[in-house]
Amino acid sequence: MTILVTGGAGYIGAHVVRLLQEQGERVVVVDDLSTGRADRVGGATLVECDIASPEATGLLTTTLRDEQVDAVIHFAARKQVGESVEKPAWYYQQNVGGLTNLLTAMEAAGVDRLVFSSSAATYGMPAVSSVEEKLHAEPINPYGETKLVCEWLARAAARAWGLRFVALRYFNVAGAGWPELGDPAVLNLVPMVLDRLARGERPAIFGDDYPTPDGTCIRDYIHVRDLADAHISSLAYLDRAEREFDVFNVGTGEGASVREVIEEIGRASGLDATPEIRPRRAGDPPRLVASPERISRELGWSAERALPEIVSSAWEAWQAGPRRIEV
Ligand code: UFG
Prior knowledge:
Blueprint: E1 2-6, H1 11-22, E2 26-31, E3 45-48, H2 56-66, E4 71-74, H3 81-86, H4 88-109, E5 113-119, H5 142-161, E6 164-170, E7 172-174, H6 189-198, E8 204-206, E9 218-219, E10 221-223, H7 224-240, E11 245-250, E12 256-257, H8 258-269, E13 276-278, E14 287-288, H9 293-299, H10 307-320
Parallel strand pairs: 1-2, 1-4, 2-3, 4-5, 5-6, 6-11, 7-10, 8-13, 9-14
Antiparallel strand pairs: 9-12
Uridine-5'-diphosphate-4-deoxy-4-fluoro-alpha-D-galactose (UFG) binds next to helix 5, helix 6 and strand 8.
């Protein structure tokens, strides 16, 4: 098979590209290299392109045809919640516009299988202990809205011209499947804690007065390697599934608090990770944990790696990179 991976030079995309290559699949990466790096795609063909740009539809159509692509995995998108609040029109243009161009090209080239990076941000602030896919999605920021609108757009394409589509709603992705493929951005809890430790500062907890057992927010942390496997399972599912449109949570079903994650980082690194308490950050739900039942039942996928492995692999990748910490 030939798989086109948009955003394949990014953190999660590069893990999927590596897995596909290990399985002997041919991979074509489309990436604008704004946050991705060309040295992460291995031997894949790299087409440099911003998929949300006006010229992208033509370039994507030609690439899908010329490379005889069988299926697409679509990562390329903007993913910063705060930025999406400040620049909503740009987020819609980038995320929804990018998928619009991609779907136009796929229809023109006759490529009908798509796996899409969605997000638990589609759920907003659910007041349930674990979130099922059938829950009414009520995103609370433009980033989450763009992911939900993309799912609707794909559902409409499935009805209109037979697109076969799986959306994976990622929970909190962290860790590294290979040390050189660690998360280069400092935007989420694990890299933010490592970054502060690297500067000789104490990790920050944004609020310890939430209605949770230790007062800090609870999330469902998923190892990026497990998440990458979920994409491979999704491709296989698209080959055999009767339904043309499906949405799955990708999480473990286990919650960990901010305090527990920081303690785990202290254990893995051997560093003093005593946290300091800061005020709450706006828009954080106290608890967001997946029900992974549906993906387990339909795709036969479940997470194999728990928090200690997530954190130790993130630490190992951090130590392999330019921001190494002397211990
Ligand atoms: N946090 C801290 N200290 C830090 C960094 C984060 O206490 O230094 C806390 C946050 O306040 C939050 C938790 O750690 O309670 C997790 O924060 P992240 O920023 O790592 O992740 P979020 O759950 O806020 O966001 C993630 C993805 C988003 C996605 C969202 C919805 O990063 O893209 O999940 O599921 F929208």
